[in-house]
Amino acid sequence: MNQKTFYFAGDLFDAKHLAGNALLAEAIYENSQKSLIPILPQNLEQRETTAHSIRDNDILCLLDCDLALFHFDGSELDSGTVVEFMFAKFADIPSVVIRSDFRAKGDQELHPWNLMASYYPRTEVLLLDSMQLYQKAVRPEEGQGPEDFLKNQLSGRRAQGMLDEMAARIVETFEIVASRHPVLPPDQAETIYDWLARMPGFAAGYKGQQDRIAEALRRKVEKHLL
Fold first, then answer.
1. Do residues 95 and 87 touch, judged by C-beta distance below 8 A?
2. CB-hemisphere CA count at 13 Å for 16?
3. Domain map (residue ranges) of the chain
4. Over the stretch 31-69, which tens digit does the pLDDT of each residue have?
5. Can you tell me the distance from the alpha carbon of 151 to that of 30, in angstroms, rounded to the nearest whole number?
6. For residue 81, which of 64, 96, 66, 102 has the smallest C-alpha distance?
7. CATH class of 4-222
8. How far apart are CA 167 and CA 169, in angstroms?
9. Alpha-carbon distance values, 68 to 19, 39, 126, 152, 222 (Å)
10. Order of strands across the sheet with 123-127?
11. pLDDT above 70 (res 214)
12. Strands, DSSP E only, in the chain?
């Protein structure tokens, strides 16, 4: 796989989210032989700016990216992640949806979430049991107690093994979706991307983002993603 950027979408509201996102993103980067470059919204946020500007920056960074990764965890999907997923589908961005939450939910048999978030083209879904991956990553010696886990750093080694396994599967899945032909007809791409510059109501206005989004389209065409 040639070097590509991917947008890393998911919860970023507490320390566990932030740390988990960072570690998984780095694991994907390393597992891909540094060919997949993660763009993490948590590294883009500027809390001193307005909520509108933060939202705009996330949308623009998503549209800039070649690929996208969406975390569909929790008993209810994070609404911001779902909005970003739909933007990716409007822009025909090859996407991987991953769920490491083993709890069942939803109103369909195929995926454990609301059916309106399923069945989109150029999208692959990875359903992983994080607890199973964590426990299988490193087997403790028989009779080891809590202190033995600390002495042997088993918890950290298990966590890293889980992340490495997840990263390997994500990289493989990105290769699949990146190879798929675009759904967006070439003669309509410019019109659709122009609409994506208008539709969100960017704080800087349509003219303020038109060139950036047009440039994002040009790069995608050059990489044969559109």
1. no
2. 1
3. 4-222
4. 999 999 999 999 986 766 899 999 999 999 999 999 999
5. 27
6. 96
7. alpha beta
8. 5
9. 19, 9, 13, 36, 18
10. 36-39, 4-9, 67-71, 95-99, 123-127
11. yes
12. 4-9, 36-39, 67-71, 95-99, 123-127
